[in-house]
Amino acid sequence: MTAHAEALRERIAGELVAARARTSGLTDCLDDAELVRQHSPLMSPLVWDLAHIANQEEMWLLRAVGGREPMHPEIDTLYDAFEHPRSARPTLPLLPPADARRYASEVRGRVLDLLDTTPLTDSRLVTGGFAFGMIAQHEQQHDETMLITHQLRRGGQALSAPPPGPAADALSLPPEVLVAGGPFTMGTSSEPWALDNERPAHPVDVAPFFLDTTPVTNAAYAAFIAAGGYEEQRWWSQAGWEHRQQASLSAPLFWRREGGQWMRTRFGIVEPVPSAEPVMHVCWYEADAYARWAGRRLPTEAEWEKAARFDPATGLSRRYPWGDGEPDHHHANLGQRHLQPAPAGSYPAGAAPSGARQLIGEVWEWTASDFLPYPGFAAWPYREYSEVFFGSQYKVLRGGSFAVSAVACRGTFRNWDYPVRRQIFAGFRTARDAETDRSNRADRSNRRDAGL
C-alpha cells in the first residue's frame, strides 16, 4: 500500500468515526421515548435518522462497493426517504432504538473491514474514496438534521457546548466589501468528494458588486422589525407577503418579546437574543424583505461563490475563502463546536480575498438563486441526490452553519430548501450593484446598523 493510499484510508476512517461519535452524542442524550417521538411534523423521529444512516451506509458501501448480500432487505423501504414523507414516518414499524443502534454498529464494523481491503482505484465509485466520503457526508448532514430536531424539541436542555468568544475587531470592519467584476471558475471538477450538483467547473462572468462584510445580525434584523418591516407590504414580494400573512410571521422563529426585549429559545434554554450574532431561523421571504427594506438585495449564488472563492492575485478559485487548506477552529465555526453562531466579524483568519468574513460556518446563507443544474451537469451516482430537486420551487443556500461538519462544507457546496423553511439554521447577507449611488442608501444603512 502506498503512503497516499494509507493516508486516504486513515482520513476516511477518521471521518466515519467522527460522524458516528456525533450521531451517538445526539441520540444517547435522550431516552427511548424521546427518540421515537416526532417532535415536529417537519422532522423525522430521531430513531428513523439513526437507522436510515446505517441503511444508506449498508446499501452504498457493503452492497454497491463490497458486493455483499443485504443484511435486512425487509427494512429498505422503511428507510427510503422518498417512500415516506417525514410526517408519516412515526406510523411505520421502525426499528426500536436498541435495534437501530445494533444495526448501525454492525454495519460500521463491516464497513471498516471493507475499507482495509478495497482498492480505492477500481471504479469511479471508489476512486479517491468517493463512496466512503459520500457516506461520511451523508451521516454528518443527518447529524445537522437531528440537531434541528433538538432545537424543535420541547423540554429541558439535553446538549451543551461552550459559547464562542467575542469578535475582537468587529467594530473596525467596513459594512461591505467590493467584489470586482469579471469571470471566475464556479463549481469544481477536481474536488474528490464533491457531489454531483457542484460539478462541473465552468466559467461565470459576474458584474462588480458590494457584499455585506458579515451576515446580517440580530440587531440589524430587530431594527427591521421595529421599523414595521413585517407590516409594510412594499418590502415583500407578492408570494412573500401572502406567506407572511398566512403563516402570521412577525419575527424569526423561536423569538418572542418579553419585558421590552427580544428573547429566544435555543436548545431548551430561554435567553436574550444576542445583538451581535448573525440572525438565524428566517425564511427566504423574510431575508428578501429585509434586503428590500435596507435598499439592497440578496446576492446571487454566483456572486456568493465569487466573493467566497475567487483570488484576484492568482486568478484562481480556492477551495475555501482562506485558501485550499482544511478548516480548523481558527477559520470557521463548524461541526457543532458551539451551539450557536459566533458574533459577526469573528474568524479573521477565515476571511476571503474580498474581505468578507464568515462565509463558511455560522449560518446557511439564502441567495437569490433557484436551485438549478450547472452547464454540463450529469446526475451521479443517483438522480435522487440533486436532479429531482432542480427547479424554481427551491432556493439555494450557501456557506454552511455552525452545525455543519467540515467534511460536508466547502466553497462549492450547494444546499437548497423551500423559501418558507425557518427551522433550518439559515440567515443571510445582502448585496448591491457596484453602480448603485451610495448617497441614496444612507438612511437605510442607518436602519441596518441600529441596535436591539
- The Rg value, from CA coordinates, equals 22 Å
Helix-strand pattern, N to C? HHHHHEEEEHHEEEHHEEEEEEEH
**CATH superfamily (homologous) name of the largest domain:** paralog of FGE (formylglycine-generating enzyme)
Low-confidence stretches: 439-444
Strand adjacency order, main sheet:
12-11-10-13
Q: Tell me the major beta sheet.
A: 4 strands, mixed
What is the number of domains?
A: 2
Residue-averaged pLDDT: 95
- State the shape: globular
| Overall SS class | alpha+beta
Itemize the secondary structure elements and their pairings:
Elements: H1 3-28, H2 32-36, H3 46-65, H4 97-117, H5 130-152, E1 176-179, E2 182-186, E3 202-206, E4 209-212, H6 218-226, H7 238-247, E5 255-258, E6 261-266, E7 269-272, H8 284-293, H9 301-309, E8 310-311, E9 316-317, E10 364-371, E11 391-398, E12 415-417, E13 426-427, E14 431-433, H10 442-448
Parallel strand pairs: 10-13
Antiparallel strand pairs: 1-4, 2-3, 4-14, 5-6, 6-7, 8-9, 10-11, 11-12
